[in-house]
Design brief:
By secondary structure, the chain is α/β, with parallel strands linked by helices. The chain folds into two domains: about 170 residues, 3-Layer(aba) Sandwich (Rossmann fold); about 140 residues, Rossmann fold (3-Layer(aba) Sandwich), CATH 3.40.50. It is built from ten helices and 15 strands. Strands 1-15-13-12-11-9-10 form a seven-stranded mixed sheet, sandwiched between helices. It starts with a strand and ends in a 5-residue tail after the last helix. The N terminus is likely disordered.
Length: about 325
């Protein structure tokens, strides 16, 4: 039975973002009140812009900004491997004295000094998509990545008949998201599938080309491999590209992904990928801004805001509930 977990998203009017090539623009000399009267200014720093996932998160943030009458900017580094650039973006945002800041940390340790700066300055912090190893964030709005990865593992185990070799192409090992999507998968197999062997875990930084090369190397070294799991959009698309280039039959190698995007949707429809976990990215953006507003107002927030996830494959990909959360 397909397991579906999600949270509802309040209907709201989307507003246009202040954008430029690569990342959204900041509001000039904005301080806590913003440059649009007395609107509170909330600065959001994402992991990047190269995947459709982040555009969907941004749209959710814009919906909440319109509903709660706040000004929001949404910025991110050029790639999800550029920790230094993300840290600089966060520093620049804090220099503008926002009313609150949201951070999807690429490296949960690297941002802690700046989170301490925000705390000292009385700026509430909301983590989104990926938590940080700190108690400073008032809340974290994210998918339960461990549970979602366990669902991916369960699907993999079922698809390969409960026995055989599998591998993981992960996007990173520094963010909590990367760790949880890896470990949730590995832990499920260790605890529930004694006849399944994980032969390799490689890290492609979410880059499609690098992930494809890693997948080809794994397949070459393990001709009896039965499955590969890609932990984000770029990783999964890279695995699919490797399978296509090597001409490996889907009947011989099961591919399971995480996130969405047109390439993964096409791969599922074409039979190259069994299925994937999709998050609720609009919900992540919306809940992040909502939590920021509540923190500005001094309200007590839950430490964790679970924004939900869905398993989708050829059997349910056209379901309206699934279609609503597929970011293309």
């Amino acid at each position: 039975m397909t397991r579906i977990r999600a949270v509802g998203i309040a209907a709201a009017i989307a507003v246009a973002a202040l954008t430029m090539t690569g990342c959204a623009s900041s509001p000039g000399d904005v301080a806590g009140g913003g440059d649009s009267g007395d609107k509170p200014y909330v600065a959001l720093i994402s992991k990047g812009f190269q995947h459709q996932f982040w555009q969907a998160v941004k749209s959710g943030a814009e919906k909440a900004a319109a509903e709660f009458d706040v000004e929001v900017t949404f910025e991110g580094p050029d790639t999800e491997a550029d920790v230094d650039q993300q840290v600089q973006l966060l520093q620049t945002a804090l220099d503008k004295s926002p009313a609150a800041v949201g951070i999807a940390a690429l490296d949960s340790q690297a941002v802690i000094p700046l989170l301490q700066q925000a705390q000292t300055s009385g700026i509430p912090v909301i983590a989104f998509d990926s938590g940080v190893e700190s108690d400073i964030p008032a809340a974290t709005a994210a998918t339960d990545n461990s549970a979602a990865a366990a669902e991916a593992a369960k699907r993999m185990v079922d698809a390969i008949g409960g026995a055989g070799k599998v591998a993981v192409v992960a996007h990173d090992q520094t963010s909590l998201t990367g760790q949880q999507r890896r470990d949730g998968f590995l832990d499920y197999i260790e605890e529930n599938a004694p006849d399944v062997e994980v032969v390799d875990v490689q890290y492609g930084g979410g880059d499609q080309a690098k992930s494809a090369d890693l997948a080809k190397a794994i397949i070459g070294a393990n001709p009896d491999l039965k499955g590969i799991y890609g932990t984000n959009e770029g990783s999964a698309i890279g695995v699919v590209q490797a399978v296509k280039e090597l001409g490996v039959s889907p009947e011989k190698l099961v591919v399971i992904g995480f996130d969405s995007g047109q390439a993964q949707i096409d791969a599922i429809n074409d039979g190259l990928m069994l299925g994937a976990i999709t998050q609720n990215p609009v919900g992540i953006g919306y809940e992040t801004v909502k939590a920021a507003v509540e923190a500005i107002e001094g309200k007590t927030l839950p430490k964790s805001i679970d924004t939900g996830y869905y398993w989708y494959d050829a059997s349910n990909i056209d379901d309206p509930t699934i279609q609503a959360v597929l970011y293309k």
